[in-house]
Amino acid sequence: MSTQAKAPAAKPAAQPQKKSGGIGSGIIILVLAVVAHLIFYLWFGNGQHFEGGVNTGHPIQGDYYGLVFKGGFIVPILMTCFLTALVFSIERVLTIGKANGTGDINAFVRKVQSLLDADKVEDAMKECDKQKGSVGNVTLSALKKYKQLTADTALDKEQKLAALSKEVEESTSLEMPMLEKNLTIIATLASVSTLLGLLGTVFGMIRSFAAMGASGGSTDSSALANGISEALINTALGIGTSAICIIAYNYFTSRIDTLTYSIDEIGLSVNQNFAAHHS
Predict the structure, then answer these.
(1) Which of 118, 158, 102 is nearest to 269 (CA)?
(2) How far is CA 55 from CA 161, 196, 240, in A?
(3) CA-to-CA distance for 133 and 95, rounded, in angstroms?
(4) pLDDT, tens digit, 9 for 90 and up, residues 165-215
(5) Residue 275: band (very low, low, confident or very high) from pLDDT cuts 50, 70, 90
(6) Residue 236 has what pLDDT?
């Protein structure tokens, strides 16, 4: 009995591998938490900042390190929030700066538009290679599709324009996660820092009034004032950290909006030029 050879099953197309995102955000935050606690206990809690040479005493007059240490266990958590916001802000500055490319974005967009108006696709692609960055990458991807569709005779004009628009959208969606990475953490810290600061203040006030109550109300006003000032250290750190996070988040989202606007503008230009020059 004859047997019919079976054709080997077609292998699925290989999916592009995602590039490693480097050290995870959780690990970075954990390391910064350790650093913050070491600074808090080894430097701020060093005996040289306190009367009697031990951190159980009162802070030396005018020594803010000792005063901050008396803020309590919430302080190193707030310091972790501050260091996290600082590190991720620096990382965002470097990443978004790299995403801008090597030249002025507006000048690049105008030049590509003028080259496309003259139907010089190859020259426009060379400009993308020079510019690099997110806008350059998306534009280059769109122009490669532009060139491919120019020679395609199987699709009509509407299908080609739809394919070109889809290429721009897909290329943009690949760039956006890199641009928006860690912004959620910065936005979260803006709210959490304030709440942690208020929580530390509440704990400090509870301790101050509990101490006054235990002494039968005979605690002098200076001791009570010192206790309240120590409690308010948490509020100051929380509000300060929150303000930095809010400013950083708004700045980075503004920079990203500028990039996405440029990408949308160049994508529209590519579509319009294709419609004008090719059927």
Answers:
(1) 118
(2) 71, 23, 25
(3) 10
(4) 899 899 988 888 888 889 999 999 999 999 999 998 888 888 777 777 766
(5) confident
(6) 92
**Residue whose structure tokens are 């503004």:** 254
Residues belonging to the chain:
279
Distance CA 200, CA 223 (A): 19
Q: What is the mean pLDDT of residues 72-88?
A: 94
Amino acid at 32: L
CA distance linking residue 36 with residue 13, whole number of Å = 48
Rounded distance between C-alpha atoms, residue 201 and residue 238, angstroms: 10
Distance CA 275, CA 222 (A): 79
pTM higher than 0.90 for the full model? no
pLDDT at 22: 54
pLDDT in tens, 109-137: 889 888 888 888 888 899 898 888 888 89
Q: Of 158, 182, 15, 225, whose CA–CA distance to 87 is shortest?
A: 182
Helices 133-150 and 105-117: angle between axes, nearest 10 degrees: 10
DSSP string, the chain: ---PPPPPPPPPPPPPPPPP--S-HHHHHHHHHHHHHHIIIIIIT-GGGBGGGSTTSPBPTT-HHHHHHTT-THHHHHHHHHHHHHHHHHHHHHHHHHHT-SS-HHHHHHHHHHHHHTT-HHHHHHHHHHH-HHHHHHHHHHHHHHHHHHT--SS-HHHHHHHHHHHHHHHHHHHHHHHHTTHHHHHHHHHHHHHHHHHHHHHHHHHHHHHHHHTTT---HHHHHHHHHHHHHHHHHHHHHHHHHHHHHHHHHHHHHHHHHHHHHHHHHHHHHHHHH--
